[in-house]
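Dear colleague,

Following up on Tuesday's group meeting, I ran the structure prediction for the two-component complex that the binding team flagged. I've pasted the input sequences exactly as they went in, so you can double-check that nothing got truncated or mislabelled along the way. The structure tokens for the whole assembly follow below. Feel free to forward this to whoever is handling the docking comparison.

Inputs:
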Amino acid sequence: MTRKPSGRAGTDRSADESAAANNKNNENESSVTRIQETPRADPRLDPAAEARIGRKLKAMYDQVVNEPVPDHLLDLLGKLDASSQNDR
Amino acid sequence: MTGEPASIRDALVEEISSLRAFAASLSRNMSEADDLVQETLLKAIKSADSFKEGTNLRAWLFTILRNTFYSTYRKRKRETLDGDGYHENRLVSPASQLDYLDFQDMRAALNQLPFEQREALILVGASGMSYEEAAEICGCALGTVKSRVNRARARLAELLEVGPDEVIGGDKITTAVVGANAGRAFN
């Protein structure tokens, strides 16, 4: 590889093409074409990778959503209800 | 008088789970996240008058939580930017042990993102907020949120998908492309 490792968005394309060329021998012809055709002004992800990351992120987030709410947080709101009575 | 206190309280109870998830994504561990949620709930109750009936309660609460985090918690965080601490107090059911390991990667990768990118991605990509809502919560322009989310996604892909034993069926191209760009990710 004669390519410089440094690079900004503008060089992404050539890096991609190089990577794509390396993979030409694999059977993923359609993927290669798709990636080459993607303009890369902004960092753009392969839709499959984006979906994968999105799922993982959501799953991680939902894990907390689905946890039982700690009692002390519920108590906090309940206590305000009865704050004038001050019973506990 | 907009809304009786009782109904606000009921609505708040419904939002605690979401608040915890958002707080967890900002905090280093769950006990800190719960402190943040607690503070958010107290502030929300105190300023319930400023909530406009019929607007998005969750977005309003997320804004309070985020501002609270920024004003009090974030400074503290710099001291322990390690990221490992997150799991110490983590509640994980044995059934989700595999997910847990999976999430550890995600957590570590998220921690490497600039904070603004991380919160934008969590809001849009996980909490289900629209770009518009995320922009409001973060106090920035719509285009800024979009750009942050895009950059966050790209960076996560770099961080998560070039790992040595991350073999993804039928997706060698992505790995190769990401690999070609990975060098500059750590500049």
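Chain B touches chain A through 56 residues (CB under 8 Å).

Cheers,
M.
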